[in-house]
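Need the bound structure for AHM, inputs here:
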Amino acid sequence: MVMPSIDDTKIVTIERHILNEQRTYPEATGVLTYLLYDIALAGKVIASQTTRAGLAEILGRTGNINVQGEEVMKLDELADRMIFNLNNHTNRLAVMASEEQEDILRIPEQYGTGKYVLLYDPLDGSSNIDFNVSIGTIFAIYNRKTESGLGTLEDCLQKGKDMVAAGYMIYGASTMLVYTSGRGVHGFTLDPSVGEFLLTHPNIRIPEIPRYFSANQAYMKYWSEGVRRFTRYLQGVEKDDAPPKSLSLRYIGSMVADFHRNLLAGGIFYYPADSKDPRYPNGKLRLIYEGAPLSFIAQQAGGYGSDGYRNLLDIQPESLHQRVPMFIGNIELVEKAEEYIRKFD
Ligand code: AHM
Ligand code: MG
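Answer from helper R.:
Posting the output first, comments after.
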């Protein structure tokens, strides 16, 4: 039988890529490499479960009993537990925190602690699971601030600009992992036939000419004057000194997917403060699990993330679940949003 020829010199697995990066840091100990690899492994397991999401025992709600008489776990809880369990015993982490959990996640007593801190949103966009829409996992890695022992809240509340690495997995038509450790942004696609993430998108840069904007325009009535005018600018109907923009609208309601599209095609995603909606006076999205890591990735790809006034990476978090308005994508568009907000709000 004649096999299609594969140029194996061109295959770069995520492991090989991370190791290559590590070699360029003479002081690197390899701990971050293994940590990233553990996160990739969690991504593979979560991907294997999301592709089964149509099956009854996964789709059931917590508290339900499946046909085997076992309690059913929701997919977001499963992802949350998977990431914690794959990382709690490796001696690489001082502490973790998850968007799904109220408090910090301590490393169990029987295991040692390490020098890094892992913050994660286990399944972003999880309200989309039932509709077979892409969802994702977001992660951020910091150095611990405390010296030793169990990590603390202080370790988790760091400015985004001190982040060591960040990334996301997207569970879509294919599963991808996109990450940065401060040397550009690299994307890998999971090849299900070999179970490996392979480098498919090296050195991602946001295209200079943007194509899309992504925001839930149903909430326009809650937005401030500046954000409303900015939206009309994107639609090409607001009078402005700059040439009019007429972008296409794409909004899935799954931020990782919306962000990923705009990263590859150019554009802006925003979830502003809903000034007239008491539910989200500071927007819906979380600073440490969503805003900061995606801003680090955007910045490394030549883009920018802002809360409408300042760089999201400069904000000192006050609490684990602090929400923040988000404008993220091409620099020119995000700065335009800031300009409108400064002028009209
Ligand atoms: P989640 O972390 O609870 O899933 O919520 C975050 C999600 C984002 O993925 C998405 O951009 C946003 O919520 C959608 O919210 P809305 O339905 O208000 O537009
Ligand atoms: Mg989320």
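Comments: DSSP finds nine helices and 13 strands in the chain. The chain has a mean pLDDT of 90.
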